[in-house]
Amino acid sequence: MQIFSAFNSSLRAVLFGVGLAVGGSFAWAHGDVTPQAVDTHTLPSLGDKWLPSNPFSSGPASKEALRIGTSAYNQNCARCHGLEAISGGIAPDLRKLDGECTGMADEQKKNACFAEMDEYYVATVRRGRTRDGRVYMPPFEGSLNQEAIWAIRTYLETRREK
Which of 5, 36, 91, 112 could be joined to 80 by an S-S link, Cβ 3.0–4.6 Å? Predict the structure, then answer.
């Protein structure tokens, strides 16, 4: 009888340890996120005034912005928003960020919609999201510069659902 009792105690201890390890990793996954530095020295400087729309959506710096934005997304965003912007349920699926814009037939309305989504995106990334005193997304202003934030947006534009 003592053998079974010792076995049950050991089994409980092991299961408790596994539970802590697994549960702790889920809590940590959406816990404090320390922004990672993004090297943007190869992109044109955008200055101190925040631009209302993505300057890297097209033009000569677009390819470099995509390269930097892909890496910056993986370092700073994928933890919550998922690899390749495919959310695992913790945070919004960023492939759908401007989904309502892509289906618009009127080109002028589509462009206005994308511009509005750019404003929403940059405001959210800069200031973060807090609801009922709980931080759902940390603010990245001061940690990521304008070039890095728009480079990430450039990457997200390539991840749009078709």
Answer: 91
**pLDDT tens-digit profile of 78-127?**
999 999 998 877 888 999 988 899 889 999 999 999 999 999 999 999 99
Of the candidates 90, 88, 81, the residue with the CA atom closest to the CA atom of residue 159: 81
- Are residues 8 and 86 located together in one domain of the fold? no
**Domain span holding position 135:** 37-158
Do 57 and 96 reside in the same domain of the chain?
A: yes
User: What H or E segment, with its residue span, contains residue 44?
Assistant: none
Asked if residues 90 and 29 have their Cβ atoms less than 8 Å apart, the reply is yes
Separation CA 50–CA 64 (nearest Å): 20
Same domain assignment for residues 78 and 105: yes
Rounded-to-integer distance, Cα 96 and Cα 48, Å: 29
Rounded to whole angstroms, the Cα distance separating 50 from 70 reads 21
pLDDT in tens, 22-64: 444 443 444 456 788 899 999 999 999 999 999 999 999 999 9
